[in-house]
Structures are given as C-alpha cells and as structure tokens.
Amino acid sequence: MATTSETLREQFPDLLWKKLPSPEEHSAYTWHGFEPNKKVLLGKGHTRWPGRLPFSVDSIMEKDVAVPMRDGIKIYADIFRPANTDVDAKVPAILAFSPYGKTGTGVPNYDIMGPHRIGLKLEDTSGYEKFEGPDPATWMQYGYAIINVDARGAGKSEGDVVFYGPQEAEDVYDTIDYISKQSWCSGSVGMAGNSWLAISQINFASRHEHPALKALAPWEGRHDVYRDTLGRGGRKHNPGLHRFLLSGFAGANSVENMPEMFAKRPFFDDYWESKYIHTENINVPMYLLASFSSQLHTHGSFHTFRTAKTSEKWLRVHRYQEWYDLYRPEANADLKKFYDRFLKGIQNGWETDTPPVRLSLLGFEADGSLTKSIEERPEQEWPLARQQLKTLYLDSTLKQLVWEKPAIEGSTTHLAEGLTDSSI
C-alpha cells in the first residue's frame, strides 16, 4: 500500500519543492547539536542562561528522542518531564508540533521577530521553549510533560517538510500514539501553541481521533491557507510571509514550496482543498484564543470556534500581541485549569466558572474622547446574539463612511502605498 507521502506526490505530480540547507549549514539557524537519547537532569533553580526563567522543580530533559512514523520515517523530539516520573509518577503530556525548531533552535525566536522581544522580558522565558510553544520551565511545576517536536523534514527529522494537510495530521497521530505509551505518561495527551502549533492541532483533529488526545489549546491559527493567507480576497496576498518561512527551515531534504505552488495554481483547486481544515469535524475539548491584533489568524480563530462540532469549547479574545499573551502568568494559570480538568480529570469548576466567550476590544480615540478598552467581557456565544448588521456607505464628499446612502454618486481615489494622505 502506498504511503501518504507517495499518494500525495502521485495526486499532485507538479508539487514543487525547495532544497533545504542542513541545520549546521544554515547561516541564521540556532543549533545546539544532535545528541540522540541524551538524558539531562535540570535541577531545581536551573537556568539555561543567566537571567532567564528558572525551573522550580527537578526536571529531566531527554534530547533528540526518535519517534517512529508508520511509513518508516523517524522524527525527533525533546521531552521535558518532572524528575519524579523516573520513579513512580505518571503525568499527562502536552505536545508542541511544528517545523520551527524544537527547543530554542531554529531561525524564529523572540529576539529577532519583533522589537523589544514583543514585550517579553528575558526572565519571562527559559530559552528551552519551542518557538510559539509552552515553556517547560513553567509547566514542570504544574505536573505536565512538554514534548517539543521537529516535524517531518525539519532539523534532523527525516523526510520532507510539508505544510499541513493529511501528511502532517498522520504524523501528529503517530506522535500522540507514541507519547501516550511511554512509561512516564499517564495516557492523557493535550496539544498547545500558537500559529503553526495551533494549525497542526486543528488540522489533526479535523482528520483523525485518538483516544489519548483529551484536549486542544489552539491559541490563534488559520484553517484555510489559501483564503486566509496566500490568496486573500482572490488575489496574491503577503507572498513575503511564506518566502520568509521557507528561508527559516533547515533539514536534510526539501520543503514544500508554497509560494511557487500559488504561482502555479492561483485558483482554489484540489491541491488547496487538501490543505483546507474542515473544523466542523473537530470533536475534542478546545480552549481557543483569538485577537484582532493579528490579521493572519483572526478569521481562522473565530471560524474554528464557531464551526467546531464539540460542545466543549471556550474562546478567549485577548488584547495583546499573541506571543506576549502566550507567556503571561495569568494566561498560563488559566490554561492550567483547563488542562487540569481535561488531562487530569480534576473537577475544578472549569465548565461552570468559565464563560463560553471572553471578549476583549481595543479602545481608540474618537472625537477627542477616549474609548476605553474592554478586557475579557463574559459572553455566551460568538457571533453575539444581540449583534446588529448594518451597511456603511462611502461618501466621496465627506471622504468617510456614512450610515445613509449618499443621494449623489461620486468618486474619490486614495494611494494606499503613499507616504502621505493622498485622497483627492
């Protein structure tokens, strides 16, 4: 029987690939070497570098653990777990899955991805966190294992890097299956993370179910790479984003060349359908995050909450930059309560205490008066049942949106790329 990889290549013979440099060869790739199955004790108070977030309990790091896939490929993971799991304790596992590097490796990191580390102080993270994933130094004290995976084709993981779709979903299934059977694991697995780490969650859960997977925390992701990113509005959109992503990958083989595939297949077809995530199939408890600050994930986050089959779903709309929110102590405490309920089975009142929707809105200045921000206002649904949909009209004389249709037709132009206001 053909493997999923072989089937996809047969289905899409025009699939384009870009050869990757190795982690050692990539000029911008942070790399700490390859040490299969090396086991390191990270004692209480351990810090990776001075001034970083310390571990508050004795912990174990297992480096470059080979995880077998059903087609014979091996992908590699770094496993963090409380040290008492070496004796008799069993803990749930939280899986962070993407090709961005495992544990402070790769190109993307908070030092270069935005000014001032996007608000994160050095002491807010340990340096052991996977980019856009939960920090092991935080979660060890809560009694969870953190599994940082290099997805297929990334780092030393075998195969080619693929963008979402059936191959990634199959690999996530096999990884969950492997983790759940380890001697230190309680048999309960959750997933967590932002952006690609969120997309990999809903991509998997839309295509497969695994009895060990108890909960998801997709903290801002998209479900439709064509309409949300590459072809938003029916035209080429933000091509630089995926070129940047491609430039940040390293591995032994190749990466699926999404920008070139869009150039070759500019209209939505069966190739883009293979990447589409049917969120209506998701039937596992979910704690979702959304914001209006990142257009990249806004539509996908709200869409996933709105359409997912599960009745056990909660949405928090925050008012921060998404990476900053990922490591806020209040956010982690909230996520811990969710995981305690669904990964540990603790009856802690999550369902009764947590509104289905918590809505934050950014304030702005209008007519000289300050409109205050709204933070986590409790709501029962999204879209809001009390919403009123109204039509706004462009008024060429006033050069603004108005509620009433102008009596006289007119026109105006605006140079959107100009450095000054160019409306005439």
Give your account of this protein's structure.
By secondary structure, the protein is an alpha/beta fold. It has two domains: 4-354, Alpha/Beta hydrolase fold, catalytic domain (Rossmann fold, 3-Layer(aba) Sandwich); 390-424, no CATH class. Helices cover 25% and strands 22% of the residues. The strands form five sheets. A seven-stranded mixed beta sheet has the order 2-3-4-6-5-7-8, sandwiched between helices. A four-stranded mixed beta sheet has the order 10-11-12-15, covered by helices on one side. β3 (59-68) and β4 (74-82) form a beta hairpin. α3 packs across α4. It is globular, with a radius of gyration of 23 Å. The protein starts with a helix and ends in a 22-residue tail after the last strand. InterPro entries: AB_hydrolase_fold, CocE/Ser_esterase, Xaa-Pro-like_dom, Xaa-Pro_dipeptidyl-ppase/CocE. This is Xaa-Pro dipeptidyl-peptidase-like domain-containing protein. One of its GO terms (molecular function) is hydrolase activity. It comes from Trichoderma guizhouense.
Order of helices and strands: HEEEEEHEHEHEHHEHHEHEHHHEEEEEE
The number of helices is 12
Domain count, please report it. 2
Q: In percent, how helical is the residue content? A: 10-25%
The appropriate CATH architecture of the largest domain is 3-Layer(aba) Sandwich
Number of strands: 17
Walk across the major sheet and give the strand order: 2-3-4-6-5-7-8
The biggest beta sheet is recorded as: 7 strands, mixed
Shape: globular
CATH superfamily of the largest domain: Alpha/Beta hydrolase fold, catalytic domain
* CATH first level of the largest domain: Alpha Beta
Average pLDDT number = 93
